[in-house]
């Protein structure tokens, strides 16, 4: 091969990361977490899947166990894109042990520069929440709600090896409202390896008895990117 040969860009990328986890809110512990992100992005379609797993235990018992799946399929056209999305959470120790949200809507790139990107999304959806049991209500009924979901996805490339991401999502429903902020700072160490600091903060307006409204997860991970 010529010395300046480069592989053509791929439509598929994947990220795999793992590292230390610190929880505050409904769970107080430190342990390990893992995350995988898969993206297939073409001129017409973008398919994205994110899979997260959190597990923690102290000397006596398991203190945190949570699994998240985020799936989104987008169809692009000249002024933006339409999407269908599903978010699914199993959280053994959370205020809600099972959360399922499906939504659809419209999104567009408000800023589409090489260094700064901002995407905005809005659309209706349906949310299913199964509350954590309590002494007064050991077997609670699930909450079902029609929602309006809005999201802002921001990405800033600070320089060649460093980037900052922040996603803000609001779900407004008749029975409950949530606000989620997912932030990360990534610094490339060498080639496809990077160090990543992440923070996820979720506020739920109405929670079961003896539960806190705000959950925070902070992660310190080593990340590898496939392209």
Strand content: over 45%
Largest β-sheet summary: 12 strands, antiparallel, barrel
Contiguous uncertain segments of 5+ residues: 1-6
Mean pLDDT: 90
Helical element count? 0
Total discrete domains:
1
- From the 3D coordinates, which CATH architecture would you assign? Beta Barrel
* Shape annotation: globular
CATH homology group? Autotransporter beta-domain
Structural class: mainly beta
Q: Which series of helices and strands comes N to C?
A: EEEEEEEEEEEE
InterPro entries: DUF481
Protein name: Salt-induced outer membrane protein
Pfam families: DUF481 (PF04338)
Structural notes for this entry:
It holds the Pfam family DUF481. It comes from Shewanella colwelliana. This is Salt-induced outer membrane protein. This protein has 227 residues and is mainly beta. The protein has a single domain (12-226), classed as Lipocalin (Beta Barrel). 0% of the residues lie in helices and 74% in strands. The protein is built from no helices and 12 strands. It has strands spanning 12-24, 29-41, 45-57, 62-77, 80-91, 96-112, 116-131, 143-159, 162-173, 177-190, 193-204, 214-226. A 12-stranded antiparallel barrel has the order 1-2-3-4-5-6-7-8-9-10-11-12. Mean pLDDT is 90; it is low at 1-6.
């Amino acid at each position: 091969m010529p010395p300046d040969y480069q592989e053509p860009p791929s439509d598929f990328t994947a990220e795999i990361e793992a590292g230390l986890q610190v929880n505050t809110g409904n769970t107080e512990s430190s342990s390990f977490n893992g995350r995988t992100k898969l993206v297939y992005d073409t001129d017409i379609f973008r398919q994205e899947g994110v899979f997260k797993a959190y597990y923690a235990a102290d000397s006596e018992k398991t203190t945190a166990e949570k699994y998240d799946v985020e799936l989104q399929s987008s169809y692009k056209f000249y002024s933006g894109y339409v999407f269908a999305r599903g978010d699914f959470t199993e959280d053994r120790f959370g205020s809600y042990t099972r959360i399922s949200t499906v939504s659809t809507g419209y999104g567009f790139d408000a800023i589409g520069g090489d260094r700064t990107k901002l995407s905005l999304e809005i659309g209706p959806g349906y949310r299913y929440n199964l509350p954590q049991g309590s002494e007064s209500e050991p077997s609670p009924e699930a909450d079902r709600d029609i929602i309006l979901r809005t999201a802002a996805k921001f990405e800033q490339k600070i320089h060649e090896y460093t980037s900052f991401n922040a996603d803000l999502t609001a779900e407004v429903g008749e029975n409950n409202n949530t606000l989620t902020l997912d932030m990360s700072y990534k610094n490339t160490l060498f080639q496809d390896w990077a160090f990543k600091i992440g923070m996820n903060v979720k506020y739920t307006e109405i929670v079961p008895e003896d539960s806190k409204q705000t959950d925070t997860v902070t992660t310190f991970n080593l990340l590898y990117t496939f392209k």
